[in-house]
Amino acid sequence: MTTPTPPPSTTGEPVVVLGAGFAGLVAAVELDRLGIDVIVLKASGAVGGLATSHTVDGIRFDTGAHFVTNRLATALGVMDQCRDATEYSEAVWRNGTAASYPLGLMRSPRYVTSALAARLRRNPASRTAADRFRSEYGRALADEVAIPLLEAWSGLPAEELAPSILDKIPGGIGETVALTAARRLTHRPIAIGYCAEAPQSANVWHVYPRDGLGVFTDRLAAQLAGRIHLDTPAEAIHVRDGRVVSVRVHGDDLPAAAVVTTLPAPLLPRILDDPAVAPLAALSFRAMVFLQLRIRGRGLLPAPVTWTPGSELPFFRVTETPMAMPWLAPVGETVLTVDIGARVGDSTWTADADELASRCLDALAALIPDVCTRMIDVYSTRTPIAYPVFALATEPARRTIAKHGIRGLVSAGRNAEFAHLLMEDVYWRTLRSMRRLGRQLAG
User: Fold this and answer.
1) What pTM does this model have?
2) Quick check: bond before 233 cis, omega within 30?
3) What are the backbone dihedrals phi and psi of residue 57, each rounded to the nearest 5 degrees, phi first?
4) For residue 249, how many other CB atoms are within 10 A of its CB?
5) What is the pLDDT of residues 395-406, one digit of tens each?
6) pLDDT tens-digit map of 353-362
7) Would you give the DSSP letter of residue 175?
8) Homologous superfamily of 285-388 in CATH?
9) Superfamily of domain 15-49+214-279+395-442
């Protein structure tokens, strides 16, 4: 393979974008719109990253949960290829019963009393995630629902997690209740809690592309013809006098005006030998196995997203996406996506789909008594970088991501920023950071 050739430039060397997932493609398209030459390097042979969909036997499913709003689809110019979700709601399944989130939980006098007591109490600054959840939600709801889910999601006890993990949740309980009421009044699947970078409102609701997330990434990639180089990993980033100067590719140095990295933050020190980013090597992600169960029937769960707190369960969330987006499964069928926390190499990670299904079916029978007789097939996807782990021990390292002081080095996207960002937040944040970079290069 040969080193990518920089395009004819009006601004000097090109900006090199590392990664061609959603964040990398958004960054490159925005830089191109600003008139800045750009080259995209992708280590694998395909664009999309985690923002891809899979189609098997007429069933469509994603690697993990991806939430799309009409606002994002419109901004990307693909709203005409999307359909509105028919509904969207969440429920919490506990002790054999389901409660809608948040209004159903608020009907519990014990949860309400505990939450009010926590708000009236003057609490010192939270030292751990457990402290902050109890302060925000009250001990009853925190200990019985929020903390068990957090621990299953992160793979660590809440006492070992940083309180900043709660920063990802936009809006307060009042806004959540108001939007939930608007959802019921309008019969529209209003998005609640899925974007902190742009205002939540009754005019922003869940949609999904008819043909899967590839609609987004394919449209973005089409605007970068000739500038995306697949099977081309960055081998090193070179810095001189505190500024990025080049990227090594296939043994040659490619001059760079700046580097936008979307690589998982812990990988950056492997290709950038600089003490300013060395602490990032300590960060880690939670691995996750997503089990897709093809089932006869439809509308089998209490809500499209059902949370299942409790250490006795082998999973913490079950999603029935076709309940909200019927076109993702054949008529008369549905798909349950079961989220199972893992560590790379452990017995969950290495188990095949049939073995995982056998572990989960007994627990699922509590929600769907005849689930075993409804089973048609099972598939699985897995990723080692499902969720950033906000460990207390690595919180100082996480806070250095935006403070490394290396000029011309920008981190963009959930993995590189090591933040709990969904697609719309990634989009707006990346646009803003590219515009800042454009101003810096122009100045």
Assistant:
1) 0.91
2) no
3) 55, 40
4) 21
5) 999 999 989 999
6) 999 999 999 8
7) H
8) Protoporphyrinogen oxidase, mitochondrial; domain 2 (3.90.660.20)
9) FAD/NAD(P)-binding domain (3.50.50.60)
- What pLDDT shows up at residue 12? 79
Tell me the fold of 90-188.
protoporphyrinogen ix oxidase, domain 3 (1.10.3110)
SS3 of 207, please?
Answer: strand
Give CA–CA dist 151/28, Å, rounded.
36
Cα–Cα dist 218/29, whole Å: 12
Cβ atoms 102, 81 nearer than 8 A: no
Residue type, 57: D
153 torsion bin: left (phi>0), alpha (psi -120 to 50), beta (else): alpha
Per-residue confidence (pLDDT) for residue 122, from 0 to 100: 66
How many Cα atoms within 13 Å fall on the side-chain side of residue 294?
Answer: 19
- Nearest CA-CA partner of 64 in 414, 366, 401: 414
The neighbour count for residue 124, using CB atoms within 10 Å, is: 7
Location of each CATH 1.10.3110 domain in the chain: 90-188
Token pair recorded at residue 48 = 């999309």
Q: For the chain, what is the largest distance between any 2 Cα atoms, rounded to a whole number of angstroms? A: 67
List pLDDT tens digits, range 128-165: 999 999 998 899 999 999 999 999 999 999 999 999 98
**205-262 confidence digits (pLDDT tens):** 999 998 888 889 999 999 999 999 999 999 999 999 999 999 999 999 999 999 999 9
Give the pair of three-digit tokens for residue 106: 């608020």
Handedness of CA 193, 291, 217, 400 (dihedral sign): positive
Strands (E), 9-95: 15-18, 38-41, 53-56, 59-62, 68-69, 82-84, 90-94
The predicted pLDDT at position 120 comes to 80
- pLDDT category at 10 given cuts 50, 70, 90 is very low
Q: How far apart are CA 190 and CA 202, in angstroms?
A: 6
Residue ranges matching CATH 3.90.660.20 in the chain: 285-388
Q: Tokens 């969330």 — which residue?
A: 317
Residues 6+ apart with CB under 8 A from 318: 301, 306, 308, 336, 337, 338, 339, 364, 367
Pairing, β 409-411 against β 258-261? parallel
CA 181 to the chain's CA centroid: 26
